[in-house]
Every structure is written in structure tokens, then in C-alpha cells.
Amino acid sequence: MSAIAKQSKAAGKKRSKSQETWRRFKKNTRAVVGLGIVAVLVLCAVLAPILAPYGPNEQNPRNRLQGPSAEHWFGTDELGRDILSRIIYGARISMSVGLIAICISLIGGVALGAIAGYYGGTADNIIMRCMDVLLSIPTILLNISIVAALGSGLQNVMIAIGVSSIPGYCRIVRASILSLRDQDFVEASRAAGASDFFLITRHILPNCMAPLIVQATLRIGAAILSCASMSFLGLGIVPPTAEWGSMLSTGRDFLRDAPHVCIFPGLAIMAAVFSMNLVGDGLRDALDPKLKD
Amino acid sequence: MSSEKLLEIKNLTVHFESFDATVHAVENLNLSLRHGETLGLVGETGAGKTTTVKSVMRILPEPPAKIVSGEILFDGQDLLKLPIKEMRKIRGKQISMIFQDPMTSLNPVMTVAEQIAEVIRLHEKCSKKEAHKKACDMLELVGIRPERGSDYPHQFSGGMKQRVVIAMALACNPRFLIADEPTTALDVTIQAQVLELMKKLKAQYQTAMVMITHDLGIVAEICDYVAIMYAGEIVEYGTREHIFNHTGHPYTKGLFACIPDIFTEQNELVPINGLTPDPTDLPVGCRFHPRCPYATEQCAKEHPANFEIEPGHYVACHLARSGGNDNV
Amino acid sequence: MSETLLEVKHLKKYFNTKAGLLHAVDDVSFSIAKGETLGLVGESGCGKSTIGRAILRLHEPTSGEVLLDGTDVTKLNKQELRELRRKMQIVFQDPYSSLDGRKSVFESIGEPLIIQKICKTKEEYEKRVHTLMETVGLAERLVNAYPHELDGGRRQRVGIARALALNPSFLVLDEPVSALDVSIQAQVLNLMQKLQKDMGLTYLFISHNLSVVKHISDRIAVMYLGRMVELSDCKALFANPMHPYTKALLSAVPIPRLDVRKERILLEGDVPSPVNPAPGCRFAGRCASCMEICRKEQPELREVEPGHFAACHLIEQ
Q: Is residue B256 over pLDDT 90?
């Protein structure tokens, strides 16, 4: 009830939901740090030509596999290319692969999961059995088959990665909806004449955000790595295009002599996943009124 | 009935501490109970009833709960000072507890006879077979056919499950039984069955009992003594007759006034105004004064002490002390 | 008797379960006059909540008619039903699960207005929500509060305000005070009586608590295992219960008084399963005065005295 007392400060005024969320998000230091890192990475991607000291594909055979130095902060790779510049340029592809693939799987998974969970019965059966089929095929094989069907290229790799992780989201959403569907507040809204679409978007989905956000932010790293393995198989990014995942996999051969070739792209991926995770957790908490203040 | 005290709680204070606030769950509580007696502990949600009995059993989650001070004497022995190993010997054997929700207080993957036998084997040296035999006897005692002992909890209805829970609580023939709202989750006709059963068993075994309830009807039916709790304190204590016929505290009066009476016609109920106070921020003076229709200036300043308005009938109210309470 | 607002005719609701057909509500008929409160009592699983939900078509009735102001609710299409929902609303038992934890008090109360597109301007909408809050006695400062910050009584007030938002004429109150402490329970009961008087509402009050039902109802219907066993004026029911189940139910209520001692009729056993019930009277298995006919033939609800209906073979003799 002390919370009510605090409420009285804002007597009678109605704040908008987004303002409220942002106000709570700001209070969470870790989330703000995460957002800062994401902002830096996005900035790198956008301003790559300005920020990068060298071109991403500028080779310098005399400077192969050099360790970090004043000229090359992150050292150089097996072709003498500046790793820092490649990471900055790589942010463009890696970040977009991560985000777009996640968006595809989120949209697909949420829509299918919502339909399966809310309507149940035959729709549920058909959708979930399809998901089971998708789950039973090894991810890499599934990715390859989708890319094989659609043709190689970055766009299709993103679609493949997105589609292959749909079942995870679908299951999460379906499970949450099953437990929320018969709650009294949903019934109350239905009694007021709400449509199914209204119920799902206004009541049910906001209440299953928490596990979704966690799943989505954790999967970003996996998406970047999947993209790398697709590139490794020659189905994704064509060398010499800079991309974190493929830098990591080509660097593997020199791990013993020049570990920095792997370490820096690895750190970049880690930073991306870590920061997204912080932002995701912060967002989840900020959206939950129970954790307010 | 021996006049010796079986349980005596002295100055018990229990707080729940979270990082930004302290909940004063029970404050300076005194209570005693003799052999074979039944005490009704009455109060609304958050009054501290369950916290009190859980501290007797020492099953409060510590932290966040913290027994700040007090003694709980059971048979002259301070339970709060006992090592946990000794305490385990007492739980279930000397003192046992019946919980509110029979649905969740039984393990769904064990048959009911196994669960009762388990309690018996914890405290008595006997073979599995003997324990099982005794478990079946207990079931019979509470009116369940012994052959149903090999059934699982989900095969029983709510009332039957509560009977099983009672059988389990009585399995080791405890001297003291704590019943935490044992019939709240049950239907009226089933509640009547369970209450009759408890009355019968109580008379048969002379078990002392503390019955937590919010239903004054149940108190009228089964309890010898009544303690009314409000915001962590006992505001009125006396025999059943004292409480029902010479109600002393304004809160108790309020409780009676807001129950619809099945026998008389009344147009409007007289609710107690306001809400139970925030336990992290209790009012100064008498804790009930912000809701009390008779509150005076003194009530807002001074915490009322217990006052014996007639032998054995204690009321914590300034008005009772000045004697003016009966007229208001 | 004044004009009938709601009439339920031969309402049935069966659920398909793995064990068989669950007869939740089996051929129940009653009517409620304008401005009246009908109390519906019974123990858990007797189908009283299902009736409330079937009337609102939150559960589709298996068969039967529900006439509200002469319109058969069960035959309406989606659009018509949506319109009709303005006239009837529901208040739920559990003030915790009946509010969306992610919606503030303002949003919860205002939601029906948005769904039904009642308000033309934002100002009108805000004003309406504030008026509703005032009607149910919620302080204005709580407008941005979230359900977890409120106690049960206040949450229930939010639930009531939400139900009143569309200005309904009929409310189903599904155990609205069962989850509340007695002192708060009295506050909410008084509020509901006041609202009924001020707004001319008609209530179907569902509860298992006989003293509460007696307090608020004009007439009372007693349910047992999907069937209505007795329906009568409130006073007559308590003065002269006819059905053996009603008698047992009344005698089982613990009375908070020492001067009233009464003979208690203890019922044997438990409520049987409503799945594929045996023919005959549903109460036969627990009835002390069960006769042969009771196990064979289902007794019909009959008017024994003017306005006092009971379904029992004993009375018909």
C-alpha cells in the first residue's frame, strides 16, 4: 500500500505507456549500458566508411597476422587486412543478420503460436505437428535446404535462419497463451464484446512478452554464428566480404600462432549478444508494472 | 482437564525484512493454552495469524522472516531455543499442523496410506508393515475406508483429502494440533462433516488445538477460547461466551456487524470503514484507531495495554479501561 | 410482479470430457424481473458459474433459450452479440485474476468503452472513466495504479467499475465477495446494493455463502449437480425449506451466535460426479429420505406454494 502513497504524487494524471516504460528503463543501469553498446555497434555499422582506419578489403601481404599495434589496433589477418576495419564493416552485415533473422522468427513464431494456442483443436494440431517436423530436422540441414531452394545470398540466409528458429518461439507463445486464455480478465474483456484479435494483441501477447524477449535476445548470437557456418559452406556471404562469423571461422586455422584473428571478432559477437541481452532484460522489466520503482 | 499450561507464547515479535521495509507481522503477542483446550485465532488477511502458528512450528522462512524476540514455551521448554534437530522430533509427533488447502498439502505421487505411514515411521520405531497398518487405522478413524489407502490424492474429493490430512496430523497422537483454516477451501456441507469429525476427535483424544479462522460461525461451534487478532496484535481474548456475549473491542464488534445474519432482516450491513493498515507503516497509538468509530485523541497517541474487563476477558482498548465501551 | 428482464428456458450446458459427457447445467429455467436480485447458491461443481457464463455466452449453451428483454441471446450472430454485451456484464470472483496485471486501473475500466467505441473524444473518455471510479468509490489518485498495488476490495471495485462502464441493465455477479475479508466484503455488498438502487440494475448473484445470498437477494435458487432443486422467495426459503438438500445446506452453515443451536443434518458422502449422471434424482445418493422412485425418475421443478418451487418426489405425494 505504500506504492499507493507514491502513486498519489501523480494524482489523476495519465502518463502514456511508452513514457512510463522509458522512465523505468532509464532507472536500470545495466540496461542503459547495454543500450549504449548497441548504439555504438549500430553507429559503427552506419558510419563504417568514416570510422574505419582502412578499407575492409585492403590487403597488405607484408603485414600478415600481425598482433595488435599502434597502426593496427586489433592486428591484421592472414591477408594483412586490418581487423578493426573489418569488424567495423562487419557490424553492418552481422547486426542486420542477427536482427532480421530474429524478426522473421519472432513474427512467424508469435503468429503461429498465437493461433495454435488460442484456437486450439485442429489448427493447433496442424501447426504444432509442422513445428515438430521442423524441430526434428537438424538446424544446419534445414538451413541448407531452405537456401538451396531459395538460392544462395545473404537475404535467403537470413530467411533460412529465421524460419528454422520459428518452432522455439511458437512453443513459448502457445504455452503462455494456453495458461492465459481462460483467465478471468480475458473473459471480462470478451464479455465487453472484444474480438479475438483484440484479446490476443491487447491482453494475451503483452503477458507472454517476458520469455519471448529473453529467447529473442539470446538467439541473436546463435543467428550470427549460423550465418557464419552458412558462409563457411559457401552458401551465405561470399568472401572477401567482412562478416564477424566468417572472420571467426577463417581465423580458426591460425588460432595457435595468431589468436587475435579470432579473439576480436569473437569479442564483437559477444558484445552484440551481451548488450542485446541487457537491453532485452531491461525492456522486460520496464514493461512489467509489477516491478515498477 | 489439567490446569497446567501446554503452550505459552510470551512477547512474541516477528518481522519480515525486505531490503527496503520491515513488515511488523506479529508484535508483542502473548497467548497460552492448556491441555485439551481449543483456541480460535480470528482475524482478517494479514493479521498475523498464520505467522504466529508458523513460529510455533518454527517453519517460517528465515530470512525474510525474523523472530525478533519472545519465548514459545511448549511443556515448559522454549521451542525457539531448541536446536533444529530436536525441533524436528517435536514437529509431527508432539505438535502437528493442518493446512488450509488440502489440494496442495498432499504429495500427488504417493498413495495416501504411504504418506501417513511416512509420518509414523519418522517418529516411531516400527516396521513398514506396522506403519501401514496404523495408517489404515487412522484412515478408518477419519471415516475413510481403509482399502482406499492405496489410492492417490487425486482420486479423493476435497473433503476426503482434508480428512486424509487430518489423519496424517493425528497419526502420532500429538498433544497439540494447529489447524490453519482447515475448512475454508471446502463446501458448506463438507465443512460441516469435517467440523463434526474434528469435534469428535478432539473430545476423544483430548488434543489441544489452535484453530485459525476468519469465520466466527466456526468459532461459535468448536472453540473454547477466542483470540481476535488485528494488525499483528491480539486485541481481545476471552472465552467463547465472553467474545460473543460481552464483545469488548470495537474491532470485534465491527466484525460481528459486517456479517450478514441469516436469522434477522437487515437492510444494510455496517462495514468497518477503511482498510487494514500497511504492515510496514503501522499507525501510532492504537492500530485500529483510524478505522474505529469511537476513537479519541488518546487512541491516536497511546498504544492501549491489555485490560481485564472481567475475569479472563482481556481487551486492548482505552475505552474498555475507562469502562465506557459497553455503552457505545 | 413487474416486468421480466431475463428469462432462461431449459438451459443446458454439457462439456465433452475424456470421462464422458459432463452435465454442468441440465435443463434449468428461471426468470428475473427488472430491478430484482436472484441469488444462485450451490456447492462447487453444481453449475452455478456455468449458468452465469452461458447467459453471457462466454460458454456457448448446448441448448435452451436465454431471453434478455425478449431477445434470444443464444441465436445472435457475432455483431448482434457485441451490441447486446452492452446490456449485460459480469463481475468475477477472483479480484486477482480478473484484472490484467499489465493494465492500469484507468485502462482496465476504460477498456469496454474502447472496445464498444462509446466515446467520441478523448476528454469524454477520460471523464467517463473518472465518473465510473467515483461511482464505485475509488479515489482519483489510483487512476495510474496497477492491480498488484491494490488490495482485494479495491480490485473488486475496479472489476465492478469495468462492468458498469457500458451502462448495462443486467449484471452477473459471480461470487463477487467470496475472496474478500469480511469487513471489506460488507463494504462491497453495500456498494452493490447502492448501485442497484441508483441505477436500477438487475443482478444474478452467484455465491456459495448462504448468509451473503440471503442478505442481497430477493429470490433464491438452489442448485445441486446441474439441476435447480428449489426456487423461492428469500424469506420463504429460509423459513420453510422444502428440498432435503436445501434443508441440509441451511443447517450446515456455521452461525456466529451462541444463542442459536440447531439440529444439524449431516449429509453422507460427497457430491457425485456430474459426468454421465445416473437417472433419477441427482441428490438420491445422499438423501436421507430417498425412495425407490427417486432412483428412477427425475423430479421436475414444481410450484408447491405460490412462488415457491421445489423439485422433489417427497413433496409431490
A: no
